[in-house]
Design a protein that fits this description.
Blueprint: H1 3-15, H2 18-24, H3 29-43, E1 48-50, E2 55-57, H4 59-81, E3 91-97, H5 106-116, E4 120-126, H6 129-138, E5 143-148, E6 158-173, E7 184-185, E8 194-195, H7 202-213, E9 220-222, H8 228-236, E10 242-245, H9 246-252, E11 257-263, E12 267-275, H10 282-296
Parallel strand pairs: 3-4, 3-5, 7-11, 8-9
Antiparallel strand pairs: 1-2, 5-12, 6-10, 6-11, 6-12
Helix pairs in contact: 1-2, 1-4, 2-3
Length: 297
């Protein structure tokens, strides 16, 4: 049992509606239904009578709500005792970010918002694009900051705000003679072993598509380079190259690793994504505007 499930049940009971409760809790209706169903399964009881016209508490549901209200009030008293805002006063914003987000400068942007808004709780998780989409759909994430080529943005139910446009670079060991080059031609990428993501990840599929479209051998040396330190060590030791955007390349370039631009330029966009049907207001709208404004400075 999770604390959030108590609040979901109390909200549905108050609204007599799953959809209205979902809107009030800033999650999707399938997500709140899934959470309450999981709770009912755990407790081995039905908390609500559901039909096409109404949602009402069962006897067990009434009993559950009586105890849940006591728990919620106890949590609020605990928070108040330590001079914190109560749980009902705090908004939780759940954000998914791409791997290497720190190198792209996102940490300071996100942290500055939560530092300035003490009544907002932040939850940040590193997610590759496919998982981020899944969690946006279920309500496990409110926003996702993702990187993608424009032609691979195909989710019609997602609203995309473009944050920045960058080009691909080759992250390569300075032991490799190509590290002395000013640019590396796209057609030359087949000469290098590639460090990439898991075989079912968006990054893997996007890079494979880029290679195949340009008739380049897709020579993968290692999968799952979401582990930043491992990836950098492998690049440094000349085991393979990694393809990164301008900002990430600048962050990781040093006396052992070079970041070389690819020609012709290969555009990668960074997006702030969220469900199109969600009408943002309050802290959610403020967060969206903060992230967009920070990228325009």
């Amino acid at each position: 049992m999770e604390i959030r499930q108590l609040y979901y049940v109390l909200e549905v009971a108050k609204c007599n509606s799953f959809s209205k409760a979902a809107n009030a809790q800033f999650i999707t209706q399938p997500a709140i239904s899934q959470q309450i169903s999981a709770l009912e399964e755990e407790l081995q009881v039905k908390l609500f009578k559901r039909d096409t016209h109404s949602v009402v508490l069962t006897k067990e549901g009434e009993k559950f709500c009586a105890y849940a209200k006591d728990v919620a009030e106890s949590i609020d008293r605990l928070m108040a005792a330590f001079h914190q805002s109560t749980t009902k006063d705090k908004t939780v914003i759940k954000v998914g970010v791409f791997p290497f987000y720190k190198a792209a400068g996102l940490t300071s942007i996100i942290n500055s918002f939560f530092a300035a808004n003490h009544n907002v709780i932040g939850s940040i998780k590193v997610e590759e694009n496919y998982r981020a989409y899944e969690k946006l759909e279920t309500g496990e994430l409110n926003f996702a900051i993702i990187k993608s080529r424009l032609e691979n943005i195909q989710k019609s139910w997602v609203k995309y705000e473009v944050l920045c446009s960058e080009n691909l670079n080759v992250l390569i060991s300075r032991k490799n003679p190509y590290a002395q080059r000013k640019v590396i031609e796209l057609s030359e990428l087949g000469q290098f072993s590639l460090l990439t993501g898991d075989q079912d990840s968006h990054f893997y599929n996007e890079m494979r598509e880029l290679y195949e479209k340009n008739h380049i051998d897709f020579n993968v040396a290692f999968l799952n380079t979401g582990e930043v330190d491992m990836m950098l060590d492998m690049v440094k030791d000349n085991i393979g190259i990694s393809l990164v955007t301008d900002s990430v390349g600048r962050a990781y370039e040093n006396e052992e690793i070079a970041a070389i631009p690819i020609e012709p330029k290969q555009e990668i966009l960074t997006f702030l994504a969220y469900p199109r049907k969600r009408r943002l207001s309050g802290a959610y709208l403020a967060f969206k505007n903060h992230v967009i404004d920070a990228h325009r400075k």
